[in-house]
Write a structure and sequence with these properties.
Number of strands: 16
Distance between the termini: 27 Å
Amino acid sequence: LNAPATTEHRPGKLVWADLFTTDPDGATKFYCGLLGWTATPLEQKGKSYTVFSNEGTPVAGLAPRSAKGSNHPSRWIGYYSVVDIDAALATASKDGGTVRAPSRNFPDRGYQAIISDVDAMPIGLLQSSSGDSLDNEPKPGAWNWFELYVKSPKATSEFYHDVFGFAVAAETNSNRKSDFVLSSAGQARGGIALRPEGDDVKSSWLGVIRVSDLDKTLAKVLGLGGEVLVAPHSVEFGSRFAIILDSTGGTVGLVEYIDSANPANSQ
């Protein structure tokens, strides 16, 4: 993940994301067309896999789903840095989570696993063999934030505190929708908010990617087969935000920061 490798480890940092989809060709066309990512196909433990890079830096992967999963939309799963993946998995199980994919060693990446949290939401853990990158301002095209929408934000925040070592703080800025902000190494990493009301509303995870020009990016969505779910609007720190559905049913947030006002650098 990092070349050259670093000796830095930042537990709780979003370091990777995988898109699980039954339409890998469609998803590749969508994200490369939308964000300018480049795609490198490879074989990983006997299975096909695609690495997406942003300006030469790997940022995400694509894992094909079998045809039997065709009734399910694509799903992004984020992976968060841990120093000891075995200890983190043990804590997750003790605190009410479920191990969905046990720890495996992937060459040139490290040990990774997938769990379900207390809301049955899948989340990834990654103990990188090449360390973690510095907490620099994310470039356009890179992951910047994550938000969890759940039934009980307080209980969920306690789970993430125990498993990933997040510092948890109640949100004090009324302009932001997170009920709790999760931080590590002095850096805000993401938020946990109360999910909207409604019988058909389920808990969900939303990864957010930074873009340089939100309007130009959104103008490409329809032509690539996607849909704008939440129209662009102004949010905290002078940023503008939107949510889109990709051509395969995956959901992702897009944000443009005005004057480099990145909420991940503010607490």
